[in-house]
Amino acid sequence: MTSAGINRVTTSQEEVQQQLERILSSREFRLPERARRFLEFVVTETLEGRRDYLKAFTIAQAVFGRDANFDAQQDPCVRIEAGRLRRELEHYYLTAGDADRIIITIPKGGYAPVFDVVSGAEPTDRSALEKSDRPGSSGDDNGQITTAADTIGREQADRRFWPGRYWLLAAGAVIVLASAAALLRQVGLPSAERETTSGADNRPTIIVERFESVSDGSLASDISRGMTDDIIEKLVRFNDIVVVTDMPRNKYGEASSRPLYALQGSVRIEGSKLRSTARLVRRADAAVIWASDYDADMKVQGIPKTQASLAGDIATAVARPFGVMFQTDTAAIAGSADALSCVLSYYSYRSEMTMQAHEVAKSCLQQAVKKMPADSNIVALLSLIHLDEFRFSYQLHSKSTAATLSLAKELAEQAVRLDPRNARALQALMLANFFDNDPAGALSAGAAAYASNPNDTEVAGEYGLRLSMSGKWDQGCTLISEAVGKNAGPRGYYEVGMALCAFMRGDTQAAELWSRMSDLNYNPMHRLVLLSILGTLGKKQEAAEQLDWIRREAPALMPNIRQEVARRLARTEDQKRFLSGIEAAGLSVQ
User: Fold this and answer.
1) Among 16, 234, 204, 5, which Cα is nearest to 120's?
2) 462-482 in b/e burial notation, b at 16+ Cβ within 10 A?
3) Which of 197, 221, 368, 433 is the most buried (most CB within 10 A)?
4) Which pLDDT does position 123 carry in this prediction?
5) Residue 184: which residues within 8 A CB-CB, separation 6 or more?
6) b/e string for 381-391 if b means 16 or more Cβ within 10 A?
7) Closest Cα to residue 3, out of 141, 183, 121, 156?
């Protein structure tokens, strides 16, 4: 497929370099210095004709400063950073770069960039197209980059990037339309009928259509049918959505007006490879708001497990917390207290992590619980938002009182009583027990939450964190790594868990890398983790910068460091290791 707007003409090495500089200097390109070096390195190497050397190992050494012992299987830092870089490039081209002539992408499955030219766009510097051939380019006599920079992987870039630009634009309108429709329905309905439509029926609804078999033979047909069934089975475990197999209708036989999406896809077999494409379509205007492709070798796990694995990946991508259906601005839903708006407000707050967003989401959930006291999901989210006042008190400038923790635990227990298999309710109970100094109860609830929905990235990540901090580092870090690999949100949250995992196994270099990949403004405790790592590495000047930030932005944390560390790290040896790093940074812990 060829995307509209892409021209098959080539471009010059100089024009690509100018585009790189434009991206790196843009305010809309929001990644840290390490990611900028990543992009600059892969673009430069490609321009110099060395794209075949762009492997995880070489990038880890050149950009991340890793040594010859780097193992990409054990340390996925390059893969994770490449994923972030791809998303940030998409963001740039949706905003500041929407009119740029040169499109730089890094297709999935590798690290070599592809350069495309938008037809009709004028070159930034026309003289660049007229310059003679330069050393290191693989162009023609006009100095244009062809094989090394343009034609390789062009079809792959077309399939994966250009549609994504329009899907992301469409995704931004989903919540506004859904919230407006919900509000209009509530205003127009009699009070008795409003109560029946304000609960789970107001949540996003996904129609799972039968996946199409695009390969001949009964095997592909059987797999497509099995894939569809597996996806449905895994999607229904997500309590934030409603899953159906046919167009939902109200009691009058009219098509439902609630937020409606269709999950469509196809399956094909190529030798031993099982390949599947999937897309999520908004029914209101037929806009594709998400799409991806997946493949696996059936020889490795066999057909049933391969089929189930791909179905799990698709379900996770579609319905995961902080995913495409749950992205909005907290202010956009303020004032409404239906189930969908409150779910959206919660995920928006967790992404923003500000006092204002916290109050908006909390107020919404409190009103929603009064209207829908039997809704396990809403009660669970209210528990979690109260718990945040306890565990994120330095970020939210709240008081971490025993009464706050007690209320959060009561709400979590209520949510579990309402629905003992609700993964979000069990997650809330896990966290409440953990911070109430009941590690056994926390891990028991966490195990139940993970068993209820292993494809929920937030459940897997939080359970992994609690396992790790309870001393079960190997088991917990595996879950955290898997969650990060599936883009678990909020952005930058679980990377601090990866930093702790590396720190506790003695790999302080990897620990610093992961810590800097986390969102250091999300929680002052993240800064404390980096402080301990830098102290252990002997980087006192950089540690002093983190310490100054904590003293300035979270002064209340300073006299409580030992207490906060003990709340999170259950084992004495882990506490000592962490605190020794802080003291090595120059801070005497009371």
Assistant:
1) 5
2) bbbbbbbbbebbeebbebbbb
3) 368
4) 59
5) none
6) bbbbbbbbbbb
7) 156
